[in-house]
Amino acid sequence: MKPITKVMTAFTLGILLQGGIYYYLDQYMFAPTTDFSVAGESQKADDNFPDIKEGNKYFSYDRKYMAVVTEKSIRIYTSGKDTPAEIDLKGRSVSYFDWMPDRNLAIMGLYGGPKDQVIMARLNADDPDHEVDTELEDVPEGSKIVDVAYSEATNVVYMKVKVAESTYRIYRTDANYDTRRVYMQASNIGRIAVFYDEDKFFYDNVRTGDVFMFDGTEGGWRVINPSGRYRLIGVDNKQNIYIARVDEDDNALAVYEGKLGVGFKPVYKYNNPITLSEVTMDEVKDIMANGSDTATKITDEREDTAGKSKSDSKSNSKSDSKSNSDSKSDSDKKTR
Predict the structure, then answer these.
(1) Under 8 Å between Cβ of 209 and 228
(2) In whole angstroms, what is the distance from residue 195 CA to residue 180 CA?
(3) φ, ψ for residue 301 (rounded to 5)?
(4) With the CA atoms of 55, 60, 65 and 70 taken in that order, what torsion angle do they form, in degrees rounded to the nearest 10?
(5) What are the Basic and acidic residues biased-composition ranges (predicted)?
(6) Minimal CB count within 10 Å: which of 9, 94, 234, 330?
């Protein structure tokens, strides 16, 4: 065989092998397996698992697995078995843990360890010894992942990283493990969310009371809330967006439902201001379906103040422009 033929054969085999690995990751390891549930399940006790007193308990979507998580340990229990699988954290601490809502795959935020790293790890409960790590580079010392939003159908993951008190960054990774920081229009970021089937990311600015949409594909952003002070609640699998109108103390006054390009309308108001942390997607869906003594449904759309969003005056087609708050808050920080 001629040398050039050998080279071409090796090159072709390499391309086929790489394509096969990517196909497996995209179609099997990260592929959706059931209907999507953005709100997730409540972490209730289950008689199929041992009664563990320590740590926080998280159940997989099909309740086949229970994770018991502390800052220094993660143990995975299989339904009907008493002996857990101990996850080797390699000396790192846990800052975040959650199951994906449609498969037995967990997302973990790890930090510290001998190399003082910040890691987003994907853990396959069916094969807990096989962990896929994504390291965040150029993050300030002492940073940690505190929240994650994942788009199940697109395999895009957004990470909220705390870099200082009330100061956060957003990092994005995908199925190709292309991990990078994306610059937001705020540093004091509240809740985050992403559509399950489209790379549209949402977050709010705690300081100003604005809710933003970031387009991860095209790189543009805009404010989507009506005039006034609002905070993000979350999104559902029909691409409905839920926001709360809040007072200056961030107590929720009313809940709005909306869609991109359409606007928002109020769905109910609270009879008395309620602490924002108590307003969850589960609670919103329950009140909309069943009503509540604590809230009054709004049926007159003329009360809607959301016909026009702030996006007309606050938008940008490029995500690479830092906000003043991001630049100022990060400029004096020491990076790795």
Answers:
(1) yes
(2) 19
(3) -70, -10
(4) -20
(5) 298-336
(6) 9
Q: End-to-end CA distance of the chain, in Å?
A: 50
Give the separation between CA 167 and CA 223, rounded to whole angstroms: 20
Q: Is the dihedral of CA 15, 16, 19, 25 positive or negative?
A: negative
Both tokens assigned to 305: 């103040």
Is the distance from CB of 192 to CB of 201 less than 8 angstroms?
Answer: yes
Q: In the Cβ-directed half-sphere of 272, how many Cα atoms lie within 13 Å? A: 3
User: Rounded distance, CA 270 to CA 279, Å?
Assistant: 11
| The two three-digit tokens of residue 70, written as one number | 């502390």
Series of mean pLDDT values for 10-residue runs along the chain (336 residues): 54 56 42 33 69 94 96 96 94 96 93 95 89 92 96 95 97 93 96 97 98 96 97 98 97 98 96 97 96 91 45 49 44 42
Residues in the chain: 336
Lookup result for tokens 């938008």: 315
Please give the order of strands across the beta sheet that includes 117-124. 92-99, 105-112, 117-124, 131-135
Of 229, 220, 224, 254, the residue nearest 240 (C-alpha): 224
Dihedral of alpha carbons 143, 186, 308, 292, sign: positive
pTM for this entry:
0.79
